[in-house]
């Protein structure tokens, strides 16, 4: 979810069928709930980008729109990689998206959840990928970018699953998001499997640090956002951040389910819906995620 200079908020997310990419826009965040989705791309019938169309993320960079997403191969559905679309139109809903192909991370393995940000004039890519040489599913990696579709320089690992809450069902760090405040860079990320155990962890570094030095980053030993049995919100994660419509506060955007029990593989359950709630700040300058608020109105 991003707020653009044209006065619109744009929103994209994985669709339950895992077969296409959609965008919504509205003049307010609440308006997105009723906005008609526009399909901007469909999966391929065969080969790469043919299955598991996941985790799209929209960015406006140097006058063009870019949409980063993950996709599998139609014949090898778990060969998940990061791909990029580009649209040079001022209107991202215009049917002028072109495929820019796979974003190469330096080695071929399960990879997804790319996000990009600029710090002190340097653009970075932050994403999740499996290292086949160590135990676990996905870790978080960072690299500088030469342009919106090309990495340059070295790739560094910022985090891997190490605490018990990151290793429930699967060993996962994924879904990174960046927010900067009071001289510090914060990276939220999601951990564990995609059932009720899914939760959010937090990394941080000083703005003055070399972001490509792993020792510059500190990871909290406990999750900062997790399920609420009381409020009936389970498995919250894969968040992003946005300013409120009045630009007076920060908001947390995330997906979660309104029930705990899932029949079968959680990946096949389509009901991780998007929610928005306030993000506040602690006296020490760190973000306070709080607990997931109950649905209003409650979902059946």
The major β-sheet equals: 4 strands, antiparallel
Poorly predicted spans: none
Percentage beta strand = over 45%
**Radius of gyration over C-alpha positions, nearest whole angstrom:** 18 Å
Mean pLDDT: 97
User: How many strand segments?
Assistant: 20
Q: Report the total helices.
A: 0
- Number of separate structural domains: 2
Distance between the termini: 25 Å
Class from secondary-structure proportions: mainly beta
CATH class of the largest domain: Mainly Beta
CATH architecture of the largest domain: 5 Propeller
What share of the residues lie within helices?
Answer: under 10%
> Per the principal axes of the C-alpha atoms, what is the gross shape?
globular
Please identify which CATH superfamily of the largest domain we are dealing with: Glycosyl hydrolase domain, family 43
| Biggest sheet, spatial arrangement of strands | 1-2-3-4
Q: How is the CATH topology of the largest domain named?
A: Tachylectin-2, Chain A
Question: Could you give the order of the helices and strands?
Answer: EEEEEEEEEEEEEEEEEEEE
């Amino acid at each position: 979810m991003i707020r653009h200079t044209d006065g619109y908020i744009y929103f994209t997310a994985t669709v339950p069928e895992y077969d296409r990419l959609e965008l919504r826009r509205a003049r307010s965040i609440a308006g997105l709930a009723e906005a008609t989705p526009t399909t901007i791309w469909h999966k391929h019938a065969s080969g790469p980008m043919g299955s598991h169309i996941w985790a799209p993320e929209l960015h406006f960079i140097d006058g063009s729109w870019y949409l980063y997403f993950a996709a599998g191969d139609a014949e090898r559905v778990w060969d998940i990689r990061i791909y990029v679309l580009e649209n040079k139109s001022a209107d991202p809903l215009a049917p002028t998206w072109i495929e820019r192909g796979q974003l190469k991370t330096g080695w071929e393995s399960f990879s997804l959840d790319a996000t990009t940000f600029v710090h002190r004039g340097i653009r970075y890519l932050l994403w999740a990928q499996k290292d086949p040489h160590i135990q676990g599913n996905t870790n978080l990696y960072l690299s500088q970018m030469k342009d919106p579709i090309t990495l340059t320089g070295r790739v560094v690992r910022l985090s891997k699953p190490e605490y018990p809450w990151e290793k429930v069902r699967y060993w996962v760090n994924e879904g990174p998001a960046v927010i900067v405040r009071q001289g510090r860079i914060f990276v939220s990320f999601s951990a564990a499997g995609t059932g009720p155990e899914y939760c959010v962890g937090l990394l941080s570094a000083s703005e003055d640090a070399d972001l490509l030095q792993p020792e510059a980053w500190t990871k909290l030993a406990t999750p900062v956002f997790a399920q609420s049995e009381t409020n009936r919100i389970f498995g919250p994660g894969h968040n992003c951040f946005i300013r409120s419509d009045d630009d007076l506060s920060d908001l947390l955007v995330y997906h979660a389910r309104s029930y705990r029990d899932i029949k079968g593989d959680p990946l096949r359950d389509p009901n991780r819906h998007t929610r928005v709630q306030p993000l506040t700040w602690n006296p020490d300058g760190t973000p306070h995620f709080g607990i997931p608020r109950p649905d209003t109105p409650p979902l059946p």
